[in-house]
Design brief:
The complex is a heterodimer of chains A (213) and B (142). Chain A is α+β, with helices and mostly antiparallel strands. Chain A has a single domain, classed as Glutaredoxin, CATH 3.40.30.10. In chain A, 54% of the residues lie in helices and 13% in strands. Chain A has a five-stranded mixed sheet with strand order 1-3-2-5-6, with helices on both faces. In chain A, helix 3 packs across helix 5 and helix 4 runs parallel beside helix 7. With 142 residues, chain B is mainly α. Chain B has a single domain, classed as Bromodomain-like, CATH 1.20.1550. Chain B has five helices and one strand; from the N terminus they run H-H-H-H-E-H. Chain B is elongated. The chains are: A alpha+beta (213), B mainly alpha (142). At the A-B interface, helix 1, helix 3 and strand 4 of A face helix 4, strand 1 and helix 5 of B.
């Protein structure tokens, strides 16, 4: 009887938690629409973007390269980017979370690649091969191999990555994220509407197509 | 053996005190920030120390009832936490939340002893000792 009671409570809590925390999501935007483009996109200089700024649909991703959920979203973002090209404007902004030890390093690496015009290539590689470096103590060396594989100028790349003062641009991204109410990664803003979740390809497509009409 | 059953509530109390001090040691001395699920387990574990302590002091046999409830909820949360921690339940599609992740590995003694493991073990031991305690006087009645 007692063991049955313990078992029942356990079962109810586990099933409830599993349903609540990882159940299907509704892909509804969760806040009011942000119209401040400067706050959403960040400064034009060194902005990591793709597509056309004058496009009808703008997607801003606040991401952390070490976050597994962002890794799940990355190929979807890539597919959307390739499919819609100049019909959309995609901006990536850094939001390295404190619990991810290699998140600042990876953000620096992507930034350094962006300085040499290879941001999205580095984005794909960091997310695509996340398991290879995310928890590794020698992540810096592993990511450097990605950089050299992309044909980056390694002197410039290493100077940027080794800058112990950190990167004010990354800090600015994060501060803007805080101001916008970002609390998790990935968080997307589609025409200023916030979606704090991994959107599936179909969900992205539906939202974009609705806005393109 | 009967004596062991009769005094098993003391063992449960010792386990609860050790779990409470251990969790405080991790957060306050080693500065490992507790995640949300750790906090929920603390909410269940810490009152057990007080409830069992008072129950033992007043020789209240009914104390096992309250400990069962808190212990069961704690064990259930811990079970779920362990499923996430050991990647039996997938977490990858859940967004990474600002703050402390419930799957960050702070300790890993002997390759498998982790904080959620210790928590689950403590709740399980407390429940086991309370069942032994309950059975000790229910058998006497018969």
């Amino acid at each position: 009887m007692i063991l049955g009671g313990i078992g029942l409570i356990t079962l109810l809590i586990v099933v409830g938690a599993a349903l609540l925390l990882s159940g299907p999501k509704s892909s509804q935007s969760t806040s009011t629409i942000v119209t401040d483009k400067a706050l959403l996109y960040g400064p034009l200089e060194d902005r990591n973007s793709a597509g056309s700024e004058s496009a009808k649909v703008a997607i801003v991703e606040f991401g952390d390269f070490q976050c597994p959920a962002c890794g799940v979203a990355a190929p979807i973002v890539k597919k959307i980017k390739e499919e819609y090209k100049d019909k959309i404007y995609v901006v990536f902004r850094n939001f390295p979370l404190t619990q991810h030890a290699n998140a600042p390093l990876s953000a620096q690496a992507a930034y350094a690649a962006g300085k040499q015009g290879k941001f999205w290539e580095m984005y794909d590689q960091l997310y695509g091969e996340q398991a290879a470096w995310a928890e590794k103590p020698n992540a810096k060396d592993i990511i450097s191999t990605f950089a050299s594989g992309l044909g980056l100028n390694m002197t410039d790349y290493l100077a940027s990555v080794n800058d112990s003062a950190g990167n004010p641009k990354i800090q600015k991204d994060q501060n803007d994220g805080y101001q916008l109410g970002v609390k998790s990664t990935p968080t997307f803003f589609i025409n200023g509407e916030m979606y704090a979740e991994v959107l599936s390809y179909e969900e992205f497509k539906k939202i974009i197509d609705d806005k393109l009409k | 053996m009967k004596n062991l059953f009769k005094h098993s509530h003391y063992f449960a109390f010792i386990v609860a005190v050790a779990a409470m001090l251990g969790s405080l040691f991790f957060s306050e001395v080693l500065h490992f920030p507790p995640c949300v699920l750790c906090w929920y387990q603390r909410i269940c574990m810490y009152p057990i120390v007080g409830i069992l302590g008072v129950g033992i002091y007043f020789r209240d046999r009914a104390v096992y009832r309250y400990v069962f409830l808190l212990g069961s909820i704690g064990l259930a949360i811990s079970f779920y936490h362990n499923l996430l921690y050991y990647k039996i339940l997938p977490e990858s599609a859940a967004p990474c939340i600002l703050g402390v992740s419930c799957t960050t590995k702070f300790i890993e003694w002997f390759g498998f002893v982790t904080i959620p493991f210790l928590s689950g073990l403590s709740f399980a031991l407390i429940l086991l000792f309370m069942i032994m305690y309950r059975n000790s006087f229910l058998e006497k009645k018969k």
